Amino acid sequence: MADSTASVEEQRLRVLMEYALMDSGAEAEFDAITRLAAQICNVPHALITFIETDRQWFKSRFGVEATEVPRDISFCAAVLEEDGLIEIPDVRRDPRFADNPMVVDAPYVRFYSSIILKVAGGHRLGSLCVFDPTPGPLNDSQRAGLQDLADLTVTLIEQRLAKRKAETREAMLGSLLEALPGGVVACDARGELTLFNSIARNWHQSDPMRIPQSQWAEYFHLYEADGETLLVPERVPLVRAMQGESVRDAEICIKAANVAPREILCSGRPFFDSQGNLLGAVAAMFDVTARKARSREIAQVRQYLQAVVDAATEVAIMAADTEGLITLFNPGAERLLGYIGSDVVSRLRLTDLYAPRELAAFTAEVEKEVGHALTPIEALTARPLRGQIESRDWHFVCADRSHRMLRLVLTAIRDHADEVIGFLGIAIDRSQLLAMEQALQTSEARFRTAFDSAPQGMVLVSLNGQFLEVNQSLCDMLDYSREQMLRMDFQAITHPDDLHNDLTHVHRLMNGEISSFQLAKRYFTRTGEIIWIQLSVAMTRDSRGKPLNYVAQIRDITAERQLDRMKSEFVAVVSHELRTPITSIKGALGLLNSGALGTVPAGFEEMLCVAERNAERLSVLVNDLLDWEKLAADKMAFDYQIYDLRDLLEESLLTNKGYADSFDVSLNLAGDESLHVYVDALRFAQVLSNLLSNAIKFSPAGDQVTLAYERKGDQALISVADNGPGIPAKFRHNLFQLFAQADSSNTRRQGGTGLGLAISKQLVEYMRGQIDFESTEGVGTEFRVALPLVEQGIKPEEDQGSGR
Questions:
Q1: Could you report the per-residue pLDDT of 283-307, keeping only the tens digit for each?
Q2: In what helix (H) or strand (E) does residue 396 lie, and over which residues does it extend?
Q3: Is the peptide bond before 107 cis (omega within 30 degrees of 0)?
Q4: Are residues 91 and 85 in contact, defined by beta-carbon separation less than 8 angstroms?
Q5: What is the pLDDT of residues 49-80, one digit of tens each?
Q6: Which element (helix H / strand E) includes 104?
Q7: CA distance linking residue 100 with residue 78, whole number of Å
Q8: What is the mean pLDDT of residues 456-470?
Q9: Does pLDDT of 145 surpass 90?
Q10: What pLDDT is recorded for position 25?
């Protein structure tokens, strides 16, 4: 019995907690009831109380200061299990309360009456009670009034719980509507919007307002599924639902300003009260833009794949279901086997196309592997079902009953759940493949013959420099066996002083900046001897342009280099031997022409001037020859310093002004930036003098030559432009070669050694720059020199090699 009582009390306390009455705030409705109870019963004290585990808490009190009392002295707790009106005219005469602190002490209770508050389910939560320090009973009218107030209290408690549940449901519904992945809108029976969740607001880029139904489409940017036609009012899904229609997956488009159009699926329906009266309508909207885009992409992919299948006229593509029934037969299969696709698809099985004897032998072979009997289609698909590829040559039966050999690759087709839904076969004509293999073998044989029999060295090199293949000529040249060479890389036999330049060219080739390169470099033979070779390198790439390896031709030019050195030495000796007498001749002619030795006899002046000019030209030629000899021997010394570019250009113009005046040509400097370059000032001036003197010589009298400079990225771009006759097209390709002259005849108008531009190119490259030109015949020529810029006071890293 005690356990049962405890269970009832636990349930009562749980219900009390569900009603959320304890320690709740004051509520006017409950306070009005206690006030009326005190008035009706003509007592100074009235309470609405609820009984918890260890206390009696006052929800509403009239004439009482305290908010609660311990449960062990609670009058209501003592009578909690009693029913009906409880009335004790004098509590001093009731043994349960005679010694109660509230009786023997303030508030000196004498009269007590209460009604237990029972909620739905019969649970007793508390009481409505009145009490008075004066004893005396209630009259019938007071008892009836107190009962009515108790009933009203219970009603308020139930309504309070219902309201709380409604608020909870409303809050939950609001959270649910906000958590939905789509937009939700609703309206009342008059067509006024009552619900518009945040997703709908975001889609429409607007908040709901009192917008008439007739303007909903325009205001909320609602269009037909085509995205072009504005919805008419009666086509708006919410309006259709309000008219009693159950809308299901209606497609519309929302085109709010400044956002991409949204493709929307709408579902809606009206809702009614319990009497069937229309209360309003609700519509749910789901964004299917991405899904529709994916569907379109899938359709496009299918169309693309179908186009690929149809276009593959040289390849037979066939598909079959899990039973072997053919479901696809492309034009390539029609061409190779002679069937019409409509006569094959859904009519023939894959096994009908195989030569019977071959298929039977294959089936027996697979049966031995698996250890049990198989049908032909089971044998054909055994390996594909295990995730393997079945690839072999077969004789297929053509429409005219002849046989054709095809190389067939058969694979399983799987769905998203990795279940096999069919098989795909791709076949090519084996006769064509055999022809291709034969052609490849022939090509390889020709290449091998040419490779091995070439008189110069031939080599294939991997991307990391390892020798992949070498011919006998290279092995003889370097005195290595083929096996020894294939264990080496090109860096191992390259002279250290040449390796940097070689790797620079290789890097440019790898990056696609150049398609091939040639250079002279030194190799070590097996015995340590140094030989000079001419290296020509190109790169092989696959069909996607990815580098595969290098192919190089190597020619021994040691003898040529020795001959060139002998020529250079001869030129150097001759030039040195000529310099002293030429200097003496120039000095003597200068004295004669200046009159320092007296008046020159009449008729000799013109001859002496001609002699002096020719001596000057001969001196320039000798100096150019000496410079070229130093450059060729890599013996020219350079004194690199950081200079302000404009200072160098102004000095060069000043140096060449006298020469320009003699041709009646003016010099002009364009550019005003402060740029710094790291150069040899003397050699840089030599380059500028060559370019300026050429421009001056070929400019019309009275014209001007422009020397300009500017910043271009991390380089300084210097240009020398004239308005002369331009350089003939047939001469441009060898402009920077030795002794190059556009007019090499004995009657050419302008002098020159033909060495100036060749020397200038070498000097510019030594100073880490490049030189090029543009010329239009009849318009003029512009030479451009690009030099790397440096920060003032910071020297760049020195290059390896003499003078660099």
A1: 998 989 888 888 888 788 778 777 7
A2: strand 390-397
A3: yes
A4: no
A5: 999 999 999 999 999 999 999 999 999 999 99
A6: helix 101-104
A7: 11
A8: 88
A9: yes
A10: 93
**Residue ranges in 595-667 assigned as alpha helix (H):** 605-632, 645-662
**Using CA atoms, how far apart are residues 357 and 376, in angstroms rounded to an integer?**
11
The secondary structure element, H or E, covering residue 453 is helix 430-453
> Which amino acid is located at 153 in the chain?
T
Q: Which two tokens stand for residue 5?
A: 């009582």
Mean pLDDT, range 111-140, rounded to an integer: 94
At residue 682, what is the residue type?
L
CA distances from 484 to 66, 94, 466, 526, 572 (A): 109, 124, 12, 10, 42
3-state secondary structure of 142: helix
Measured in whole angstroms, how far is the alpha carbon of residue 760 from the centre of its chain?
A: 47
CA separation, residue 619 to residues 330, 584, 626, 633 (Å) = 83, 11, 11, 21
Residue 740 has what pLDDT? 47
Q: Within 13 A of 629's CA, how many CA atoms are on the CB side?
A: 18
Tokens of 567: 């020529």
CA distances 75 to 117, 169, 234, 543, Å, are: 14, 38, 68, 99
pLDDT at 745: 43
CA distance 643 to 554: 42
d(CA 419, CA 766): 69
Q: How many residues would you count in the chain?
A: 804
Per DSSP, the three-state class of 261 is coil
- pLDDT tens-digit series, residues 392-442: 889 999 999 999 888 889 999 988 888 999 999 998 887 666 666 677 676
**CB-CB neighbours of 712 under 10 Å:** 11
> pLDDT at residue 112 above 90?
yes
Residue 231, Cβ density class (10 Å: 0-12 exposed, 13-18 middle, ≥19 buried): buried
Of the chain, the end-to-end C-alpha distance in Å amounts to 111
Residue 94 tokens read as 């009731």
Q: Per residue in 53-74, is it b (16+ CB within 10 Å) or e — as a string?
A: eebbbbbbbbbbeeebbebeeb
Residue matched to tokens 């309000």: 242
Name the nearest CA neighbour of 767 among 650, 624, 641, 633.
Answer: 641
Q: Whole-angstrom Cα distance, residue 410 to residue 364?
A: 19
What mean pLDDT value characterizes the chain?
84
Give the model's pLDDT for residue 723: 92
